[in-house]
Amino acid sequence: MTRSELLLNPSRAAQALGVSAKALRLYEDHDLICPVRNQAGWRFYGAAEMERARRIVDLRGLGLSLGDIGRVLAGDALPLDPIFAAHQNRLEAQIVTARAQLAALRHWRAHLVSGREPNDLDYSPLQDQSLSVSLDLPWPWAGERFIIPALPALIFLTGPLGSGKTRLARALAAHIPGARFCGLDRLDAGATETQPLSGPGRDALDWLVSDGARDCAALRALVIALSDPQPTAIVVDYVEDGLDAASQAALGAWLRRYDNAARPVIAMTRSSAVFDPDLATGRELILYCPANHAPPLQVLPVPGAAGYEAVATCLGAPDVRARSAGMAVVMG
């Protein structure tokens, strides 16, 4: 390494880019960026590498898979069109909602000026239309009231073995009107590597494979469940079940870009590849079931938040998790 420009080590480069060092290494592993190295083999990033890395971060923020990012960087603009179209649709939907709210506000103001009583007005157009859930916690809890007033698009449910995660998952699915629980028997539905997919399911599978996932029956069964348009919410038991490490990492990336709050996904996991706190977007909600069966905690994915460290300690890498695959704790 003979370059005299200012060079950043991986930690400083990641900080400057606003991503984690793990994310930066992921881009390197997929040959999207190649840092310079000194004689000792240490990695550094100069101006050219940082400029390319910023483009990668921007494209990742738009929701592109790693494979699509590679094609865009190589000059292929085709992967951008569906991303831009989806973003345009979201913005147009927001405009429609905003216009309806503005119309309602004008209507209310006119009635107030005319002397109409405030209690006679319909305030529903300004109310949060998000799904909510309220339930009495099942055993092994003591029936405590548990409420999530507004379900975000993505919720990760985790906790140590025997903490009651599956019971909570089933209870959530039962108390969210129109929700569906997707258990570990999802492969029994007959999904195979050759089963044809179409529409959103096909798009999701293509994205996952482009991001490094292995096309297999377990992945297809999961994609079929996640792309089913019928449920108002989908609650999935151990989303990583049957997936290898690369597929789990791709699934985690796909879930992080999921933003359909009208149809939330509650994903139960103990895999740090599926849910890596260092890669959290801040939009997720974490439900953590403590080992002592205290009521589940609603944890923000922010270092220092209550319960954050406990969540991090119960997540494991795919090879570590494989050692306890199939284990279950029987609680009466």
From TrEMBL:
The keyword Lyase does not apply. Keywords: DNA-binding, Repressor, Transcription, Transcription regulation. SMART domains: HTH_MERR (SM00422). Residues 7-75 form the HTH merR-type domain. InterPro entries: DNA-bd_dom_put_sf (IPR009061), MerR-type_HTH_dom (IPR000551), MerR_fam (IPR047057), P-loop_NTPase (IPR027417). Coiled coil: none annotated. SUPFAM superfamilies: P-loop containing nucleoside triphosphate hydrolases (SSF52540), Putative DNA-binding domain (SSF46955). GO terms for molecular function: DNA binding; DNA-binding transcription factor activity. The keyword DNA-binding applies. It comes from the Bacteria. This is HTH merR-type domain-containing protein. It comes from Devosia chinhatensis. The lineage of its organism: Bacteria, Pseudomonadati, Pseudomonadota, Alphaproteobacteria, Hyphomicrobiales.
